[in-house]
Amino acid sequence: MICRITYILILLVTVLSTGCITVQPVTPGAAGSGVQATEPSSAMAPKSAEPKIVVAPAREEIDAYRLKPLDPVMIRFSGIREQQVLDIVIDENGEINLLHLKPIKAAGMTTSELERTIEKSYVDEGIYKTVSVNVTMTSKTYFIQGEVSSPGQFPLEGGTTLLQAIAAARGYTPYASDKITITRNGRIYKYDKDKLEKDPSKDVKIEAGDMIKVWQSWY
Known about the structure:
The protein is an alpha+beta fold.
């Protein structure tokens, strides 16, 4: 028995001398627990959630009116001497023709998009170094001249026909001939007023920008 106790003591002295066992101090207040209280490391500490800043994309012009064929527009140029103000009508192909440029597809664009397209076209083609363009919609109108009592410009209402347009101009003068023409996007269409009045089913609708002319009789 004495030999066994002596062996155990020798073993304990050997272990302590080699440093294999480390004695940890007990944190005050946790006496008898046998567990050391440690501060949580920064790596293990829960991180507070940082607020995310989300930048909303610029809003597209989804609510803006998009141009269509036969829409009349006014184009104002600034910073150049040529063509300062243009009143034009988008043609049936949805295009507009401007000085020095190929036809520009305007239909489907907003007025601000068309502004940027015109400015970029002039700069990219080397026509102007800088140019500022402003595009606005004008009210849809038609024009009537010649042998009518009140020639001029008239607002276009939906479904307006040639005979209704002439009536809005207070009818023919005593010098009116049977010949009526409509100039539309560079094309001329001819009509006979007597035939239209005899058969109203042949009456035609007026479009924005139409130029109606009632010709004078030669006798």
